[in-house]
Specification:
Elements (H helix, E strand, L loop, with lengths): L2 H9 L3 E2 L13 H9 L4 H13 L3 E2 L16 H10 L4 H8 L1 H6 L17 E4 L13 E6 L2 E4 L1
Parallel strand pairs: 1-2
Antiparallel strand pairs: 3-4, 4-5
Helix pairs in contact: 3-4, 4-5
Length: 152
Amino acid sequence: MAEDVLAAVAAQGIVVCPTLGRVPGAVPPPGLRERMRKAGLDVDARAEQMVHAHQAGVTIISGTDGGINPGKAHGILPSAVIALVSGGMSPPDALATATSRAADACGLGDHKGRIRAGNDADLIILDGDPLSDIDALQRLDSTVLAGQVVGP
C-alpha cells in the first residue's frame, strides 16, 4: 500500500479489518486468490501488509468473516491475531486488535474490550500466556460471559 494512502487512512481514522483468520490449511477462494496474486500477496504477505499499516498509524482490528465458506469457519478469531504476530506485530498490539480496539471501533469501548472496573466481565481464560506464546490463544480453558463461566 502506498505511504500516502496509509497516511490518509490513518488521518481520517478509518478502521481496517483485514479478516486474516482462516481454518488451518484452507486456501482462499479462486477469485480472492487471483486478486491476491495480482497484488503480489499471499496470506503471510497480507499479514505483513497489515502490520505495516498499523506501524503507519492505521487502526487495525481483527475479524474473520466467520461462516462465509469452509475456510472461514466460526471460531477462528485466534488465527487472525496469530497471523498479525507472525507478520511482525507485537503480541500486546495484536491482542488489542481483537479486544480494546475492536470494542472501540464498534462503539462499545466504554464497557467492553478491557479488563477494568465497570466493564462487562466477558473473558476467555487460556492455558498459557499469549504475551509470551501467542499460540496460547488456541488453548481455551474457559469462557466467561457477564461474569459467569459458560463453557470451555
